[in-house]
Please model this.
Amino acid sequence: MTKRALVTGANRGIGLEICRQLAKAGHAVLLGARDPALGEEAAAKLRAEGLDVTVVEIDVSKPASVKKCAAALKKQGHDVDMLVNNAGVIAEGKLLSGPDPMKGALAVNLLGPLNTARVFMPAMAARGWGRVVNVSSTWGSFESGLEGPAAYAVSKAALNALTVRLAREAGEGVLVNAMCPGWVRTRMGGDGADRSVEEGADTALFLATLPDDGPSGGFFRDRAPIAW
Ligand code: NAP
Model:
């Protein structure tokens, strides 16, 4: 069944590849970008491959931007069935010295997905169908030791917790899961990473297209559950 997917932070990296894979699977794709010009540049690459995507302006850290995006989509009669919260920032720096990295990390990595969830999930529940994918990281996993930059790790651990609680409030037919793409060759991951964007995006495709009896409130990597 064809659904409409919104992918945030999709003008490059893993988000752009998630758009590609969802469009290839036959879904209508809304390519979210905080800078629409960068979004159009990215969309042109997909269109050159014969894939049809629509660019939407959305800065997930700004509730007004998220609401404006939802209002524009509503005006065009577009529902969001699949929400992929991919936008993220790495937020380097220590917690106790230097500039505080936490506010910026939380604004995008935690409050961003909350802002979009609050705007798009109630309508999914009302229609009785929805899929929400939070692109997190094993650096936010307690089991894996909360590695990486401190504020990033804390923000992704909080995103994992948010996933569990959103799943509880999601309503019938709406499945909410978190995932780790692995270490991926993007601007964030760097050239030395061991995974391609295709590999990194695959679990997002899997979770966005889960069957109705699929899991909710879980954490996945390589299409399999992993420990929090
Ligand atoms: P990336 O290449 O740095 O891309 C990040 C994307 O997020 C860009 O499109 C960026 O837009 C967007 N973004 C940042 N702040 C935003 C905001 N406030 N509103 C909307 N969009 C915003 O990173 P990536 O490697 O593709 O990462 C994608 C996701 O995977 C992130 O959540 C990241 O934490 C996660 N992840 C990545 C790795 C890895 O190894 N790469 C590993 C684990 C998890 P601009 O172009 O406008 O800056």
In short: The chain has six helices and eight strands. The mean pLDDT is 98. Strands lie at 4-7, 28-33, 53-57, 82-85, 130-135, 174-179, 219-221, 224-225. The domain at 4-225 is CATH 3.40.50.720 (Rossmann fold).
